[in-house]
C-alpha cells in the first residue's frame, strides 16, 4: 500500500448517492433511501482502513494522530449543528422535548447516541421521528468501531496480508451472523447496536485489503455496474416494514463494496459517471449535508405538525444545501488539516465541549426542560405532556408471575370492604386509571387494575408485543380466582386493534393481530380477530357484568405541543378534532360492537358523545383542563375531569 492513498473522485460520487438517498428517504421520496447509511459505513471502512494499514506498514501510525484526524473530521461541523439546533429549537420545543434534546446532545458528544435512542424506544417515549439529533446514531456506531479497529490493526500490523484479511473476514462473518440472528429476535436492537453493524464497515476494510485491483477495465466496469444495480434495486424496492439490517443489508453493502473495488482499476464509464463534478461536489459536502438535513426536517414537522409538502419540501432542500455548503466551506475545510502543535489544545477543547454539553443536559434535567423560556400560558399548556398517571410505574405492565402470585394494583376507595370490580386494558386504561379510581372512590367501591400498555384487551390473540398473550391469560386467571368480583370494565385503543393502525400525530401501520383461526395476518383479518378475541375475553370474565369504555377521541395533533404553539404563534389555528373526523375513525368500531352485541351482553360507555359536538368538535380542553398528555392518551387531569363519564361504566345499565 502507498503511504498516501490517492484521491478517488468516484468515491465522492458514491458519497453523494448515499447522502441524497438518506435525504430523499427522510422527505418521503425514496422508500429504500435508508440504505444510504449502510453505503456510508462501507465507504468509511474502506477509506480509513487504507490509511491505517498504509501508516502501519510505513511505521508512522499513531493513535493520537488518528484521533486528531477523527476529531477534526467529525467534531467542528457537529458542534455548529448542535449549537444551531439548540438555539433554533428553543423557540418551538415543549419543555419535555427540550429536555430530551439536551439528553441526546450529551449522548451525541459521547458518541453514544445509538445507545441513547435505543433506550428511547419505549411505548410512552416521544416519537423518534421528532428527535432533532436522531441521525447521529450512525456517527456513534462509526466512532465505537474506531475505538477498536485501530488497536486490532496495530496488533496484526506485523502479520502478512493474507492473515490480515483472515482476521477482518472473521470479524465480518461474526458480526453479520449476529445481525442476522438478532434482527429476528429484536429488530430495534439489531438496528442500533454497534456489533450488528460492524460487518458493514468491515466490508469496506476487506476491499481495502483486497490483494489486487480488477485485472482488466472490463472486469472493473462489470464489478461497478453490478454494484450500481444492487444499490438501485435496494433504493427502489426496500421499505421501512422489512427486517433490517440482517441479510437484507447485504445487497447495498455488497453493491457499495463492488463499486469501491471496481474503482481501483482503470477508469471506466461507471467511475467517470460517479466522478461528474455535481456528484463530486455533493459528495464533498455530504457530511455537513447529513448533519443539517435531519434537524431541518424535524423543525418543519414539529412546527407544521405534519409532513412537509410541495414548496415546503423544496424550501427544506434549499435550506439543507445552503447550510451544508456554508458548513463545509467555513467549518469543515479550514479545520480539517492536521496541526501537531495544536493537538493538545484540540483534545482539551473537545473535552471542554463535552463538559459544557453535559452541563446543559444536566440543567435541562433539573429544570425539566427550561420552562422559563416560555410565557406562562404556553408553559402551562405544554406541562400537560408530563401530567400522566402517577401510578404508571407501579401498575402498568405487571408481569404474569406477579398476577399469578395475586398482586394487582388496588384502585378506588381503600376503605371499602373488598374489591368488587376489575379494570383492564392497555395504555388507554393506564391513562384513564386516575379517573376510574376517582369515580370508584366517590362510589365507595374498590377494584383491581390490570393494565399493560401496548396490549389490547383481547383473549387468545397474538399481538405485536409477544408479552401480551401471557398477560391477558394471567389476567383472566386472576379474575377466576377472585369470585367476589362482580363487574369488569374494559378499555383499550379499540380502533387500532380493529383497523391495525394508529391515528394522530405519531403514525403506526400494520399492527396485525392473529389467533388460531386466522388464515394469515392482514388488516382485513384484524377485524375478525378483534371480534373473536373480545368475545373470548367476555366469555372468560363470565359471570361478571362487562362494561366497555370506548370512543375516546383520538386527536390529530400532539395536544400539549399544539396548544403551546397556538399560544405562541397562533398555529395550528383549528386544533381540536372535527366531529366528522372522529365519527369516521370510530364508525367501523361502532359496527363491530353492534355485531358483538348480538351474541354478548355488555354495556357501552361512549366517551366521545360526552365530549364532542358539531360546533366545537372534540376539544383538547374541558373547563380549562388539558385533556391529553399526547395525541391520544388522556392526561392525569383529563382522566380526573372525565371521572363522571367513566363512572357510568361502574353503574348497572350505564
UniProtKB/TrEMBL annotation:
Tree of life domain: Bacteria
TM stretches of this protein: 12-29, 35-53, 74-93, 144-161, 166-183, 189-210, 222-238, 244-262, 274-293, 313-331, 343-363
Coiled coil: none
Stored Pfam families: Acyl_transf_3, SGNH
Protein's name in the database: Acyltransferase
Keyword Endoplasmic reticulum attributed: no
Keyword match Membrane: yes
GO cellular component terms, A-Z: membrane
Domain annotation SGNH: ranges: 403-647
Keywords: Membrane, Transmembrane, Transmembrane helix
A single MF term (Gene Ontology): acyltransferase activity, transferring groups other than amino-acyl groups
GO biological process: lipopolysaccharide biosynthetic process
Stretches assigned to the Acyltransferase domain: 9-328
Amino acid at each position: 500500500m502507498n503511504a498516501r492513498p490517492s484521491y478517488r473522485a468516484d468515491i465522492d460520487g458514491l458519497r453523494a448517492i448515499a447522502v441524497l438517498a438518506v435525504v430523499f428517504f427522510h422527505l418521503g421520496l425514496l422508500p429504500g433511501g435508508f440504505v444510504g447509511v449502510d453505503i456510508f459505513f462501507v465507504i468509511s471502512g474502506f477509506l480509513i482502513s487504507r490509511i491505517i494499514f498504509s501508516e502501519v506498514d510505513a511505521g508512522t501510525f499513531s493513535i493520537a494522530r488518528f484521533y486528531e484526524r477523527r476529531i477534526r473530521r467529525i467534531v467542528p461541523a457537529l458542534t455548529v449543528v448542535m449549537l444551531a439546533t439548540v438555539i433554533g429549537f428553543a423557540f418551538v420545543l415543549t419543555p419535555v422535548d427540550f429536555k430530551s434534546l439536551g439528553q441526546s446532545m450529551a449522548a451525541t458528544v459521547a458518541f453514544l447516541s445509538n445507545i441513547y435512542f435505543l433506550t428511547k424506544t419505549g411505548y410512552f417515549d416521544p416519537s423518534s421521528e421528532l428527535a432533532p439529533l436522531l441521525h447521529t446514531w450512525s456517527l456513534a456506531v462509526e466512532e465505537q468501531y474506531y475505538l477498536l479497529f485501530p488497536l486490532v490493526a496495530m496488533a496484526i500490523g506485523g502479520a502478512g496480508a493474507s492473515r490480515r484479511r483472515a482476521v477482518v473476514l472473521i470479524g465480518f462473518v461474526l458480526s453479520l451472523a449476529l445481525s442476522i440472528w438478532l434482527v429476528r429476535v429484536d429488530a430495534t436492537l439489531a438496528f442500533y447496536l454497534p456489533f450488528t453493524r460492524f460487518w458493514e464497515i468491515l466490508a469496506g476494510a476487506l476491499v481495502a485489503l483486497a490483494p489486487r485491483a480488477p485485472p482488466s477495465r472490463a472486469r472493473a466496469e462489470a464489478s461497478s455496474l453490478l454494484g450500481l444495480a444492487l444499490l438501485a434495486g435496494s433504493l427502489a424496492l426496500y421499505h421501512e416494514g422489512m427486517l433490517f439490517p440482517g441479510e437484507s443489508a447485504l445487497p447495498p453493502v455488497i453493491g457499495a463494496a463492488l463499486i469501491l473495488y471496481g474503482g481501483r482499476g482503470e477508469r471506466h464509464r461507471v467511475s467517470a459517471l460517479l466522478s461528474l463534478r455535481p456528484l463530486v461536489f455533493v459528495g464533498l459536502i455530504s457530511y455537513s449535508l447529513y448533519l443539517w438535513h435531519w434537524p431541518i426536517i424535524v423543525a418543519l414537522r414539529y412546527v407544521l405538525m405534519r409532513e412537509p409538502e410541495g414548496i415546503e419540501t423544496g424550501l427544506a432542500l434549499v435550506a439543507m444545501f445552503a447550510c451544508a455548503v456554508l458548513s463545509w466551506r467555513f467549518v469543515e475545510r479550514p479545520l480539517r488539516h492536521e496541526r501537531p502543535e495544536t493537538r493538545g489544545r484540540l483534545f482539551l477543547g473537545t473535552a471542554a465541549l463535552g463538559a459544557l454539553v453535559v452541563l446543559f443536559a444536566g440543567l435541562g434535567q433539573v429544570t425539566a426542560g427550561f420552562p422559563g423560556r416560555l410565557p406562562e400560558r404556553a408553559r402551562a399548556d405544554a406541562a400537560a405532556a408530563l401530567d400522566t398517571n402517577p401510578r404508571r410505574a407501579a401498575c402498568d405492565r405487571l408481569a404474569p408471575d406477579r398476577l399469578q402470585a395475586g398482586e394487582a394494583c388496588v384502585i378506588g376507595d381503600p376503605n371499602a370492604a373488598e374489591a368488587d370490580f376489575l379494570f383492564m386494558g392497555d395504555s388507554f386504561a393506564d391513562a384513564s386509571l386516575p379517573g376510574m379510581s376517582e369515580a370508584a372512590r366517590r362510589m365507595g367501591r374498590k377494584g383491581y387494575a390490570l393494565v399493560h400498555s401496548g396490549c389490547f384487551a383481547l383473549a387468545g390473540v397474538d399481538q405485536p408485543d409477544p408479552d401480551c398473550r401471557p398477560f391477558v391469560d394471567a389476567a383472566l386467571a386472576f379474575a377466576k380466582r377472585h369470585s367476589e368480583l362482580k363487574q369488569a370494565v374494559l378499555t383499550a385503543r379499540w380502533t387500532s386493534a380493529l383497523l391495525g393502525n394508529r391515528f394522530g400525530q405519531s403514525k403506526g401501520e400494520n399492527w396485525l393481530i392473529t389467533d388460531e383461526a386466522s388464515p394469515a395476518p392482514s388488516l382485513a383479518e384484524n377485524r375478525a380477530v378483534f371480534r373473536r378475541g373480545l368475545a373470548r375475553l367476555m366469555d372468560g370474565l363470565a359471570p361478571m357484568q362487562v362494561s366497555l369504555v370506548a370512543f375516546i377521541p383520538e386527536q390529530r395533533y400532539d395536544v400539549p405541543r399544539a396548544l403551546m404553539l397556538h399560544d405562541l404563534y397562533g398555529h395550528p389555528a383549528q386544533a381540536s378534532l372535527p366531529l366528522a373526523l372522529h365519527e369516521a375513525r370510530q364508525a367501523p368500531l361502532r359496527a363491530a360492537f353492534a355485531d358483538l352485541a348480538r351474541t354478548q351482553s355488555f354495556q357501552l360507555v361512549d366517551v366521545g358523545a360526552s365530549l364532542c359536538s358539531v360546533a366545537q368538535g372534540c376539544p383538547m380542553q374541558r373547563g380549562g383542563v388539558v385533556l391529553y398528555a399526547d395525541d391520544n392518551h388522556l392526561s392525569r387531569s383529563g382522566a380526573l375531569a372525565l371521572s363522571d363519564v367513566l363512572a357510568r361504566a361502574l353503574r348497572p345499565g350505564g
